[in-house]
Design a protein that fits this description.
Layout (H helix, E strand, L loop, with lengths): L2 H15 L4 H8 L3 H8 L7 H10 L4 H18 L2
Length: about 80
């Protein structure tokens, strides 16, 4: 799995945990819902700007979002051992 895939999983999880909507995130990013869906389904790559704005929408810094994604990657890889 590519590193950016973990960002998509993390953003989905954080949206759910914070009771935020994908529509709200798409509006905040200035993209349509379909484009966001492509990002969340890992069919299109995120830009750094989009990740930074998504983090802000979630009440996180870009670095906090990155750390959560890295932790998710470590957990998944550890589970595959």
């Amino acid at each position: 799995m590519a590193v950016l895939d973990y960002y998509a999983q993390t953003i989905r999880a954080e949206l759910a945990a914070r009771h935020l909507t994908q529509i709200g995130l798409a509006d905040y990013l200035g993209i349509d819902r379909r484009t966001l869906d492509y990002r969340l389904r890992k069919e299109r790559a995120w830009t750094v700007d989009e990740l930074s704005k998504a983090a802000d929408f979630l009440g996180l810094t870009y670095w906090q979002l990155s750390e959560l994604a890295a932790e998710r990657e470590k957990r998944e890889k550890k589970g595959q051992e």
